[in-house]
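Q: Convert this sequence to structure tokens.
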Amino acid sequence: MRIGIVCYPTFGGSGVLATELGIALSDKGYEVHFITYEQPVRLSQGFHPNIYFHEVKVPTYPLFDFPPYETALASTMVNVIVNQKLDLLHLHYAIPHASAAYFARQILKKTGQDIPFITTLHGTDITLVGKDSTYAPVVTFSINESDAITAVSDSLREETLRSFEIEKAIEVVPNFVDVKRFHQTDKNHFKQMLAPDGERILVHVSNFRSVKRVHDVVKIFSAVKNELPAKLLMIGDGPDRQSVEDMARGMNIYGDIRFLGKQEQISEILSIADLFLLPSQTESFGLSALEAMACGVPVISTNAGGLQEINVHGKTGYLSDVGDTDDMARHAIEILRDDDNLIHFKKAALAHARKFEKQHIIPMYEEIYQRVIADYSANKKVNCCF
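A:
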């Protein structure tokens, strides 16, 4: 089977999941073609013989204040579909991938060709951007034109059905984690450098957008530090980074925080962590939390969106209402204060993460691929007879 995967190539959850899915499929013998504007971040980690990358190049002209990426994407899709003889397109993130795929399919139909496509909804394409009245009609139309629709959590599925007039079933296929990549390794030398006096290490990973509430991370850490020795590692970058750094300086705790920027070897950092903080305004799933749990790191998070589906309150960590940093700090201190309790939470986090191992999830996508292609072929034969 030749599969085209269309995604954003960045550190965000949708791009990470799409890339990991493509790698897993290629390992099983599928031919995978990534179509996006630059090579996905996680594709840079090793050579994969069954994976191909097709760059979407957007010409710039003085006429355009905003280059028409969607048009360039649709054209690239057409070229790849025709020249590589793809069997299926899998689109990650509705905007603008689903609408571009519909555009590409209309072009192909003029030449007597066609291709089915699946749209996977990841979160802000529905909960934030997609609800904007500027985009909502196109989002609704392109999702409904998909041959299959999946969402990464029950929460996101329900949110989509509440927000849009969806005419087809939405199947839930949760995000997954590669435990061969995300697992605890011996990095004690690294831990000694960052926490030479045995301080507890807290970690946060995000794109530092307002929806991630990174200022709450610093508030939680400050409260924890008042009760026990601790260090905080902030991984990622984005629009709120500078203001968070300024906030930490103003609170006189900047010296105990490391802002590490974007990192590719997240698993090595998580291997030295004692607690993961994710106080997001909304999370469709919380892939970064799952990856932390796979490294044996308990999670303190909000109860927003799909986080309740992976972080089990009182077992793998704790859940609190959005913005309730006092409650999050209290739970963090409870986990970190006692060694035996921390070990208990670490073991439970790892055990729960293994339920989301990729070998449990990839077959769900394979079944959808096979079903969609079979239905597409059957409908094509029926239409040929009339």
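Residues 188-356 form a domain with the Rossmann fold fold (CATH 3.40.50.2000).
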